[in-house]
Amino acid sequence: MKDLTRYARQYLFAKIGEEGQRKLMSSRITVIGCGALGTVLINTLARAGIGFIRIVDRDFIELNNLQRQVLFDEGDIRENLPKSVAACRKVEKINSQIEVDAVVSDVNFTNIERLIQDVDLVLDGTDNFETRFLMNDACVKLGKPWIYSAAIGSQGLTMVILPGETACLRCVFESAPPPELTPTCDTAGIVATASTVIASLAATEAIKFLSGNAADLNATLYSYDVWTREVKSFRLDGLREVTDCATCKRYTFEYLTGERAQKTTTLCGRDAVQVTRAEPVKLDFAALARRFEKMGEASFNPFMFQAKLDGYEFTVFPDGRAIIKGTGDPAQAKTIYAKYIGV
Length: 343
Prior knowledge:
By secondary structure, this protein is of the alpha/beta class. It folds into two domains: 5-242, Rossmann fold (3-Layer(aba) Sandwich), CATH 3.40.50.720; 263-340, TATA-Binding Protein (2-Layer Sandwich). The protein is 33% helix and 22% strand. It contains 13 helices and 14 strands. It has helices spanning 8-11, 17-25, 36-48, 74-78, 83-94, 112-116, 129-142, 169-172, 185-188, 192-210, 239-242, 285-292, 330-340; strands spanning 28-32, 52-57, 99-104, 121-124, 146-152, 155-161, 220-225, 231-235, 263-267, 272-276, 297-300, 305-309, 312-316, 322-325. An eight-stranded mixed sheet has the order 3-2-1-4-5-6-7-8, with helices on both faces. Helix 3 runs parallel beside helix 10 (192-210). The longest helix is centred in the middle third of the chain and has 19 residues, at 192-210. The protein is globular. It starts with 7 loop residues before the first helix and ends with a helix. 45% of the residues are buried.
């Protein structure tokens, strides 16, 4: 029998109580992405007593992560640890009563269902729309509740999705915005408190759901700016019923089948990988250059955009296709593309 006393201050809260705490302790979750949002989600929910946490991430820890990714420290960098492994080690020290599963992997259409099929709730700690739409496809198909979260600059968004009951992500965002309109932490920066606040709100929704308080879930797309304290709350009641959503109404899982997946090709002998978007876009090179101007060298003409940054050389074409020189690893190339070009 697990000891409940460590959670005493939590289950004294009447909405949770001992019964709710026991439900939390028997719950299983998958957190996809172990960065600014993911580490706060994992840290909070591990301390709350969630019984099983699967942590999925493809990346390694860098020095600039420590400003906001709360489960990591300089020792993890010296050991060159993958994010999911380092997070797992920290959680084991925080709460030895729970089970943690570290998965070092690129989440894609070949493995997403396996990663979420045995859990009660999926949480979004990612940084790009392709993975979020993939999560949305898989969760709707399998009937898995999930919580969308995003943060950039000083603001963020979060939304609870209950397949078959509420609007899904593609009811709200039919398609991903073009890259030049999608800043990333690496191009626009982020105030650590933005990701902390948004992830804390998402973790609270997770605790509500898993403790048996689904009736109290926030039914809106909630936005908060920590710098201006501006709050926006978009009601989603009835949205699923009035949209012809490709995912939750027509059940055409385009991301889950791989139709919308990025394609990568390792260029032999060039230490470079080509990343091709599933759906070509028309890039605004001038807008892209403005994002790069504070970080590194950048130049463009009507035919291509070129930049040098952090030891990588980017050649980006008007349709969004890019050649990234400085790596031969397709997964790393996708990470770099997401960081600097956006998805």
